[in-house]
Amino acid sequence: MTKGQFPTHKFQQLRTPFYYYDTELLRKTLQTICQETMRHEGFCVHYAVKANANPYLLRIIREAGLGADCVSGGEIEAALKAGFPASKIVYAGVGKSDWEINLGLDKDIFAFNVESIAELEVINELAAAKGKVARIALRINPNVGAHTHANITTGLAENKFGIAMDDMLASIEEAAKLNNVKFVGLHFHIGSQILDMGDFEALCNRINELQDLLEKHHIQIENVNVGGGLGIDYQHPNRVPIPNFQDYFNVYAKKLRLRPGQTLHFELGRAVVAQCGTLIARTLYIKQGAVKQFAIIDAGMTDLIRPALYQAYHKIENISSDEPADTYDVVGPICESSDVFAKQIDLNKCHRGDLIAIRSAGAYGEIMASQYNCRQLPKSYMSEDL
Ligand code: LLP
What we know:
Homodimer. Residues 43-274 form the Orn/DAP/Arg decarboxylase 2 N-terminal domain. This protein is of the alpha/beta class. It has 2 domains: 3-18 and 275-385, Lyase, Ornithine Decarboxylase, Chain A, domain 1; 23-271, TIM Barrel, CATH 3.20.20.10. Helices cover 29% and strands 24% of the residues. The chain has helices spanning 8-11, 23-38, 55-63, 73-81, 98-107, 117-129, 168-177, 197-216, 245-255, 270-273, 306-310, and strands spanning 18-21, 43-48, 67-70, 89-91, 111-114, 134-141, 163-164, 181-187, 223-225, 263-268, 277-288, 293-297, 316-318, 325-331, 340-348, 355-358, 379-382. The strands form 2 sheets. Strands 1, 11, 12, 13, 14, 15, 16 and 17 form an 8-stranded mixed beta sheet that branches. β11 (277-288) and β12 (293-297) form a beta hairpin. The two termini are 18 Å apart. It binds ligand LLP.
């Protein structure tokens, strides 16, 4: 996409920074997901609300028929408000508090993804108090690595997530002893921004081993949840606006040995919403420092923390200028040295007032914004409303 793809004349009137969502791209992405899952029997996709809980986007995602994957009571509330049926809500997280569990029980969500025996016992107790039986899946830590940033791997033995594989059978036996929980499946998640399909294949192999082991113990389960993690092409948001869902689902269709009648659940976040979102900022000042030139923009790490937190790459474009490129460090106004979006990149020559587009920001962007430095949270605009 070049600057022609953005309604820059409409942006001129808006206060920056703000998130701009291309709802047409989101709809196309959802259409692709639905087409690809329909080829495989029993595949259900839950949208990982943590990636972006913008109510407008949630409604579009719900209309496409996806379920919701939540990690807090707040996310369950957001999903319900957007119209996701409780029967399509799964709820994970190592630290579920009582009110959050009670909310899930009251609404009869599809399943709690339980991360410890201690949590299992609390869910059982709270369900008993309501005379209910909670559907629970056990989140197993598969000790499968993922080729991604260390901060966003989750499926290694050293991570805080899930129940250790060696404790799986004991946990299932424990669940069987409790009257107010019903064990329905296994849950996994190995990490995020994964582009090597071999990582998902390794997860399939591990799940096959675990299912074989369960069978030896005459334990059957209704469903398997493999989490999310499919990455996107941050380098080429124009060339690859929609991730390769076909290859992704095919890995599971080919490598995972589902038992008859079992359903397979996915929890995709980034792959659904990342490419449809752009953070739009204005250039405030061009500053020639002692050794480099800075483009200082009005968006900061408070609006998009990924570059500061994970050294994440986001493609940046000057969508106001056609002049030959110059080299800049693109930085924000926050009083932190890590408030940097990119170092030594080429941008069409920048002037005060130029609009800057920070691409592929739809996932873990707006939702991770903060008010540090007493800043306002960024607003959002939908392409179909402008
Ligand atoms: N399921 C579970 C249990 C998860 O922990 C996550 C993400 C997902 C699903 C969705 O993963 P996705 O499909 O989006 O990769 N803030 C970081 C990413 C953190 C991901 C946390 N868990 C970032 O900006 O890269």
